[in-house]
Amino acid sequence: MGGISSRPFALIASLMLNFAPAPSASAQTVPQVTPTSLARKDGRAQTLELRLARPLSRAEETALRPRDRFRECVRCPEMVVVPDGVFMMGADASEAGSTEDERPRHRVSLQHFAAGRSPVTSEEWQACVAAKGCAHRVPIIAGRERDSVTGILWDEAGDYVRWLSHATGRPYRLLSEAEREYAARAGTTTAFWWGDVADPHEADAAAANLVADIGISTVAAMPPTVPLANPFGLLEVHGAVYDWVEDCWHDNYVGAPSDGSAWTAGDCKGHVLRGGALSRSLQTRRSAARMWSGPPNRMDYMSVRVARTLGP
After folding, report:
1. Which of the residues 3, 162, 227, 274 has an alpha carbon 20 to 30 A from that of 185?
2. For residue 174, which of 194, 159, 191 has the smallest C-alpha distance?
3. Which domain holds residue 132?
4. Number of separate domains in the chain
5. Is 213 inside any structural domain?
6. 178 exposure class (CB count in 10 Å sphere: 0-12, 13-18, 19+)
7. Could you tell me if residue 128 is inside a domain?
8. What are the pLDDT digits (tens) for 261-307?
């Protein structure tokens, strides 16, 4: 899989056969693409061909490079290839807003996976409901079909990835907690991928009011803009919803896996949420922040971002 590529280039472009309702300004969309010639870092050019959204062939999967994007069905999530790498998971006590369950920091190696570019959308979830793979129905609001699906329980998130695997014939699953933090950090060591301060691109008065409580600095808020992708190409890794991960909840990282796999040993009455929500404090949106939840609690900020295992 190699190291981090500097080119944010989509190897696979999705050709949408049907017009979808116009998304809201905050929705994440896949731009319509025409064949084009892009200059690569080494000076060579490669023509990217349009391709119907369908499962990757073995040759296509082998050709993937870090940050490449693909979609394996018209209503499947758009995926981003995450670079292989090693990182330090968790947070030191010196990080403002950190908690004891984020310690001890430990070294984790990860390889061969892709992550959803953004959380699963309402439109993508509805495809699972229509196919009877998901029982939980969510309201579909006209013009907001591509907003993140919300109010999803951990078991229901599992239903979705099982359906997606069956529908595509490819290995989809929930992210592990280590994969989710690694993908959010994207090679950084700060509280958020952009640094240790609140995001200046978010007009988030609620978060700003909480800054003094946890010691995280903020700067003057600017009007909301199109969300920025982190260095790995992922959107919304610090909110506006939390993503379920596969792991069972553990009170700390003593004994945690070092290979990036999900930690499912022990009492699994609760699972882990990663990400953030505008309705919760700023400290809970940090890259290292963890949140416990278990049935039957259903909260609006619960969502799902999928993972796809890739071949070597």
Report:
1. 162
2. 159
3. 83-309
4. 1
5. yes
6. buried
7. yes
8. 999 998 899 999 999 998 888 899 999 999 999 988 899 999 999 99
